C-alpha cells in the first residue's frame, strides 16, 4: 500500500549523498584533476538535481488518501485535464503558494542560469535580485510550491511529508554553504550575515 509514495520519498532521500558529492568542487578537482573533477561534479549535479525534482513530484502525484477541509464543501472546481475535483477552499489556500513559489524558483534560476542550477557549480557569488530575500530562493520556492500542490490535489501524505522536505532542503542548503565558504571565503560569510537562509526577514537588517 502506498508503494509509489514510499518509493518517491526514498528516491528523494537517495539523491542527497549524490548532491552532497556534486557540490564538493574542490575535493573532486583535487582527486580527479581540474577538468575531470569539473565534469564529474556537473554530471552528479544533473543526476541529483533532476532526480530529486522527479521524486519530489512523485510525492505529490502518487496515489494516497485525499483530505478535505470541511468548509464550503459544496463549492468545487473540476480540472478536466487531471480529472480532479478541487474544493474551493483548497484553491484559495493553494493559490498564493502556487503563485509565489514557482515565481521565486523560476526567477532565481534565471538569475543563476539554468546551467549553474543544474550542475550546482556557481562561477560567481550571487547576492542580488531574489538572492537578497533568502540565500536559497530556489529551494524556498520549491517548498512553497510543495505546500500549494499538496492542497490543490488534496494529497494527505504529501502534506504530511512537508517537515521531511524542509529537513532535506535544510541539509542540502547547509552542505552547499559549507562548500561555498570554501570557495568564496569571507565574501560568502558576509553575505550570509546579511541575508537569511530560507525564511525571509520581515524587516531588513541595517
Spatial ordering of strands, largest sheet: 1-2
Number of helices: 9
**Morphology:** globular
How many E strands? 2
Q: Kindly provide the radius of gyration, computed on alpha-carbon positions and rounded to a whole number of angstroms.
A: 19 Å
Classification by helices and strands: mainly alpha
Oligomer: single chain
Helix fraction, binned, reads: 55-70%
Mean of pLDDT: 89
> In what range is the share of β-strand residues?
under 5%
Uncertain residue ranges: none
Largest sheet: 2 strands, antiparallel
Domains (count): 1
Q: H/E element string?
A: HHHEEHHHHHH
Cα(first) to Cα(last) distance is 53 Å
Structure overview:
This protein has 206 residues and is mainly alpha-helical. The protein has one domain (3-194). 68% of the residues lie in helices and 4% in strands. It has helices at residues 3-22, 25-32, 34-61, 88-112, 114-119, 137-152, 156-160, 162-184, 186-194; strands spanning 76-79, 84-87. It has a two-stranded antiparallel ribbon. A hairpin with a 4-residue loop joins strand 1 (76-79) and strand 2 (84-87). Helix 1 (3-22) packs antiparallel against helix 3 (34-61), helix 6 runs antiparallel to helix 8 (162-184) and helix 8 crosses helix 9. It starts with a helix and ends in a 12-residue tail after the last helix. 28% of the residues are buried.
Amino acid at each position: 500500500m502506498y508503494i509509489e509514495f514510499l518509493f518517491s520519498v526514498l528516491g528523494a532521500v537517495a539523491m542527497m549523498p549524490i548532491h552532497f558529492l556534486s557540490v564538493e568542487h574542490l575535493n573532486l578537482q583535487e582527486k580527479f584533476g581540474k577538468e575531470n573533477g569539473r565534469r564529474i561534479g556537473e554530471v552528479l549535479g544533473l543526476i541529483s538535481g533532476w532526480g530529486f525534482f522527479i521524486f519530489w513530484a512523485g510525492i505529490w502525484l502518487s496515489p494516497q488518501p485525499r483530505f478535505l477541509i470541511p468548509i464550503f464543501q459544496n463549492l468545487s472546481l473540476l480540472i478536466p485535464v487531471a480529472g480532479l475535483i478541487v474544493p474551493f477552499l483548497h484553491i484559495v489556500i493553494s493559490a498564493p503558494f502556487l503563485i509565489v513559489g514557482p515565481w521565486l524558483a523560476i526567477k532565481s534560476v534565471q538569475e543563476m542560469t539554468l546551467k549553474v542550477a543544474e550542475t550546482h557549480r556557481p562561477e560567481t557569488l550571487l547576492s542580488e535580485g531574489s538572492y537578497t530575500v533568502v540565500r536559497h530562493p530556489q529551494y524556498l520556492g520549491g517548498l512553497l510550491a510543495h505546500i500549494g500542490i499538496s492542497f490543490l490535489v488534496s494529497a494527505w501524505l504529501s502534506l504530511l511529508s512537508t517537515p521531511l522536505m524542509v529537513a532535506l532542503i535544510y541539509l542540502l542548503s547547509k552542505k552547499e554553504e559549507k562548500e561555498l565558504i570554501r570557495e568564496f571565503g569571507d565574501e560568502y560569510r558576509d553575505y550570509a550575515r546579511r541575508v537569511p537562509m530560507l525564511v525571509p526577514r520581515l524587516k531588513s537588517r541595517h
